[in-house]
Fold these 3 entries.
Entry 1:
Amino acid sequence: MEKIKVIIADDSDFVRDGMRIILGVDEDFQVVAVAANGQEAVEAAGKYDADVILMDIQMPVMDGIEATGQIVKNGWGKVLILTTFDDYDLVEKAIKNGAKGYLIKNHTPDQLKQMIRSIYNGMNVMDDKIFEKIADRSTGSHSNFDEKIFTTREMDIIREISEGHSNKEIAEKLFLSEGTVKNYISTILEKGNLSHRTQVAVYYLTGKK
């Protein structure tokens, strides 16, 4: 198995060094670079062929949300937000900028590693507290979600995406090929005027794009 190449972006020396040690002792991971701010994170992502970028939000020079947008736009890796902030607006901005996951800094090393593996394997990851906030704001209905523009099969896939399932898992559950699932997702993005699959989940859960 190839190592999962990781960039760690955080303005705290303690956090950067701690995560580097945690991941460095595991043969599944390789820390290819660290960054003390968003600008350094963007530069590192452009230089190194990283799989996952662990991104703090509040950093000097450039914050993690802006850095996430630049990294995703250029296709330089998948971003996992790892922060102390659980503010919904920040979550929304991060997801709109293409973050594949959003975690609060309260997880054990093993949990963090599993989250990174999930992101690497194409799944979306969200902290339980954040998911609960999004669900609460949805008030149990998707009143602003325009279900009429999607077919029944597309809605099946939207629900699966909203549960954080990968294309492979969706294909297996719905008895489709992964290629067919990808084609459906492309159509869903176009119909909903959405940029990426994480936005699909947020739109379905909250009615907000």
Entry 2:
Amino acid sequence: MATIDRSLDLSVDAPTAGGMQRRVWGLAWPVIAENFLETTLGIVDTWLVAHLALGAIAVAGVGVAQQMQWFLIAALSALSVGTTVLVAQAFGGGDKTRAGTLARQSLTWSVIVSIPLAISGLLLSGPIIRLFSTESAVVQIGVDYMDVTMGTVVVLVGLFITGGALRGIGDTRSPLIATLIANGINVVLAWALIYGQLGLPALGAVGSAWATFISRAIALVILLSVLWRGREGVTIRGRAGWRPDFKIVRQVLAIGAPAALEQLLFVSAFTALTLIVARLGTDILAAQRIAINALSLSFLPGIGFSIAATTLVGQSVGARKILEGSHAAKIATIYAMIWMTLIGLVLLVVAPEVMALFTNDQAVIDAGAGALRVMALQQALWAVGLVQAGALRGAGNTRIPLIVSGAAMWITVALAAIWLALFGGGLTAAWAMFFVTAPVESFLLAYFFRRSATALAAKQGRESSRPLRQPTAVPAK
């Protein structure tokens, strides 16, 4: 019985090792810049809303509505994560036709799933917002804002899907360019619609929601056109592949569903934490909203290098060079730790000044500055957790991040609730509970990625060395 040499290349050759840092950085920096611009959409909105006459009340109302939007995004992230991983694996394996089909199917299913969820959000906006505040002004602003964001969320989901597909094939610059354009449009529109400038109506806080929707819709059109024209041989052009395919969506959800559940657990835990601190007063609720916006900037390098790790590990799985993916994940983790630590040191020093950019209410500044400083001290740990979780997803293992990160977040919330009930301490004490869970979470994610990579390498090695049976000859007649 003849054998065919299908040996798996598990080595990291010299040219690859020498260029891996450039590949990681080349993928990560556009994602970091894109997420910075995306984050500034929320920051600009918060800053503009904070300077309305209602001040902290407007910020609290918008903040609660935005937190509800995270739930819908988290629920639909199954399509985004599954698309990125499967497109990366197909592209790494040279199957560009399948990569294009996966992108089409993800876009189709994003529309199918998001519509009923958006309708549900519109119907439940009032009861949900009232869970977070008893002040009628906060509730009204939150409901108005949530109606716009939930009613138009299909655009945001489509933006995530197209961006995820492009990142899967290694194109992180197109999403950056689209976000840059959207960011510029949003700044002008938000100012005009909130305050009634440029001949547009003064809509108050809800004006920022309409501005964000319009700017993201334009970005979505740009990314759809990029995918339609094609990148690296992957395209969504043509009529084939758009009809809903349950087999493909099951494959996408098999990887994406645990990631979506992880995000839901994370968002619901943060929502529970918001409910806990909301009982401490509107000032504390506003401080949490502003602090989260400011803190999100420090997470940008971790998110960028996490997506780079997901892409490169996924491509390495498709190309049957898993150790190259492991090497990429190690480099991405080191880079993320360096950058997030530096940003954390800056936040540690200028936390009050950062809060003062959004409000002149000293009570809000004091509460938020303490919370920022607590999280600034944990940046290196967050960096490890973010990137190692991304590497696990690239390898197709989304269950471990679900279990580890979901449990860590809810344990943190439970500890915060117990501590505040027994000892008090406000927002700073609540966020200090991450000192207990973050080290364990980061260690476990790094440990399980090493195990997953080793197991996958061994499995592919066995498959590559397995002899192939030659077809049975058909006897001549």
Entry 3:
Amino acid sequence: MNRPEEGTLVRVPAGGQALEGNLAVPGNARGIVVFAHGSGSSRHSPRNRAVAAMLREGGLATLLVDLLTPEEGAVDEETARLRFDIDLLAERLVDATDWIGEAEETRGLGVGYFGASTGGGAALVAAARRPNSVRAVVSRGGRPDLAGAALARVHAPTLLIVGGHDPVVLELNREAFDRLRCEKDMAVVPGATHLFEEPGALEEVARLARDWFLRLLPTAGAGAPIARPRNSEVRG
């Protein structure tokens, strides 16, 4: 059962499937953030739900959607294959973005993506496929390297957030960062490991994401010029 602050249960049509999600739209919403889960996670991820709650406190709508159906999720639990099917996950995100543009509650809101783990790669591929719809991307402990050649085609300003004690993922993010041609930034959270379970680490992720989205979603227009890249500002 949904708690009221987490929104209502919705079914998002995507690729001939109906994906379950939780949509929450605060009054006078300043944009909407779609969460792209990865690596066996779902819309029930406590970490992403915590980040979503802080975004809503900042006046942003949120859509936490399962990118796999329950049947696909069961297969993935056995094989761990679909969580790395970046094209499939990205196409589901694109369909969810199109649905947002048509739904009465969300029509006209600037769209951002918040991707975690493999969902970070999927979010960047989807952003490259919808350059006129997606205004900002944030990746938390993500795998932007999995976006491959799509990295160079991403127009949406992108923030990569990585734990300082997550060395393998940190190096993958640094390599992917160099390949991005959009406005970009990278934040390293000191002392944080891959899941940001350390005291205060997830709160820092949420703060960084909230500030990024609030700067970009309410003001950037679909036809706005592409921002020029700037140098990395690694904090931590």
